[in-house]
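Researcher: Sequence recovery benchmark, item below. Answer with residues only.
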């Protein structure tokens, strides 16, 4: 008799909570322009950094504005994604989960590769300070992406397997941790 009452009480509680649960919607279409913007920014900033380095004009004065642009872009990504409902995602409807992850992965690869070797040049004495400002910003944007697009960083992790060495060398510890390394 006690077991029956326990089962009935549990069923009553479960049915009251079941009515509260709402299915998630596919919000990938709202996520896409946000991640596209950070990728577009990195498609400009990355080559700018490489040009500065190749032209032998690398310095705190020339690199700081590029870091500011990256900080602004990744902050906007985090903030924008925080305003989007968690996506149920899709593997068939464009933009798919993989489409979004590839764009984010591309942006992070551009950060890693464009900054590779800057520290070793010694031409930017405050490089560690610049990285310590950008690193938590990128990590926060990546974590928010993984929240808004659940498990979205799984493919980004795979994309970054080779390029993460540059993040390690330049001191992006929080970004590496956010990517699961």
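Model:
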């Amino acid at each position: 008799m006690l077991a029956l009452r326990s089962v009935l009480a549990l069923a009553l509680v479960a049915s009251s909570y079941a009515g509260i649960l709402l299915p998630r919607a596919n919000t990938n279409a709202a996520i896409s322009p946000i991640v596209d913007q950070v990728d577009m920014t990195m498609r400009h900033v990355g080559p700018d950094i490489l040009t500065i380095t190749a032209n032998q004009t690398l310095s705190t004065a020339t690199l700081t504005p590029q870091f500011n642009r990256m900080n602004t872009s990744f902050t906007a990504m985090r903030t924008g994604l925080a305003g989007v409902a968690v996506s149920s995602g899709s593997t068939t409807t464009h933009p798919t989960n993989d489409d979004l992850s590839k764009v984010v992965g591309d942006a992070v690869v551009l950060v890693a590769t464009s900054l590779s070797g800057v520290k070793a040049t010694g031409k930017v004495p405050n490089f560690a300070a610049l990285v310590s400002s950008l690193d938590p910003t990128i990590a926060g944007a990546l974590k928010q992406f993984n929240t808004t697009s659940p498990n979205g960083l799984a493919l980004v992790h795979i994309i970054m397997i080779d390029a993460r060495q540059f993040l390690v060398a330049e001191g992006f510890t929080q970004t590496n941790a956010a990517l699961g390394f």
